[in-house]
Write a structure and sequence with these properties.
single chain, 265 residues, alpha+beta, 4-stranded mixed sheet
């Protein structure tokens, strides 16, 4: 059985509090975008994990698809399987690609082996994999709080809009990004702001840009370039390094210097 794990973008991202456990509370809107990896899971006599496409650094046991398998096997009679992940989405870009792979792994294992886990149970497992993994279980626009695992569905539809995502070849350390940002409360109503797209450019901010852009001015340049091309909204996603722009019409320019994804939503 095959699935196509998609990415997310952050529409607004505010770091509201440093927690006693070392994590941060945040406020953001996750929105799904159809840029996909490919994930296949089939029963097999011995467990096997195969990864093709973009190479994922680190040990196999650290891959979230493998962790998803081990997590379900701990509590359920999950047979051995062959998991094949074909990686297309860049890693470490703030697009949630790895989190999506893990969450889709849970959903696929649930279907392949008929575990009959409901959506709430899958979300609970996904939250154990990573802070934003749970989003990809329902995979619809939502406002996320706490570490990103507490979600409220929101009525937001960008269908018909066009998106350009630019992924320059630079790495932004998530730990450094969180370490440098100054938490502060969000003075406003994010749900209300999301309903007024004309106010996004002036009012919908990714707080990480305040500290990441001075260190990586290329990202600020890309954001400005997207606005110069006609985007009605542009921002960095997550802690970077991907920067996206939203357009009413498909932009004419297609020859970016860096890896770029362009699609209709």
């Amino acid at each position: 059985m095959i699935a196509f794990p998609n990415i997310k973008i952050n529409l607004g991202l505010y770091i509201t509090q440093k927690r006693a456990d070392g994590y941060h509370n945040l406020l953001t809107c996750f929105y799904p975008v159809p840029w996909h990896d490919v994930l296949e899971i089939v029963p097999q006599k011995e467990f096997e994990f195969v990864q093709t496409g973009l190479q994922v650094p680190g040990n196999v046991q650290d891959n979230l698809c493998v962790k998803a398998y081990q997590l379900l096997k701990r509590d359920h009679a999950v047979p051995n399987a062959r998991i094949h992940l074909h990686k297309i989405v860049p890693m470490g870009a703030g697009l949630g690609g790895g989190s999506s792979d893990g969450a889709f792994g849970l959903k696929l294992l649930n279907d392949v082996f008929e575990l009959h886990l409901d959506t709430n149970s899958l979300e609970d497992y996904a939250a154990q994999l990573g802070s934003d993994c749970a989003f990809f279980i329902r995979n619809g626009a939502c406002i996320a709080t706490s570490r990103g695992e507490l979600m409220q569905q929101v009525n937001l539809d960008l269908k018909g809009q066009h998106i350009v995502i630019v992924c320059p070849p630079l790495h932004v350390s998530t730990a450094d990004a969180f370490g440098q940002v100054q938490p502060r409360s969000f003075e406003g109503d994010l749900k209300e702001l999301l309903q007024s797209k004309k106010d996004w450019k002036s009012g919908l901010k990714n707080q990480f840009e305040e500290t990441v852009f001075p260190k990586h001015p290329l990202l600020a340049d890309i954001k400005q370039q997207l606005y110069d091309m006609g985007a009605w909204y542009a921002a960095m996603s997550g802690s970077g390094s991907a920067v996206f722009g939203l357009f009413e019409q498909a932009p004419e320019k297609r020859n970016f210097e860096h890896q770029t994804y362009i699609a209709a939503l």
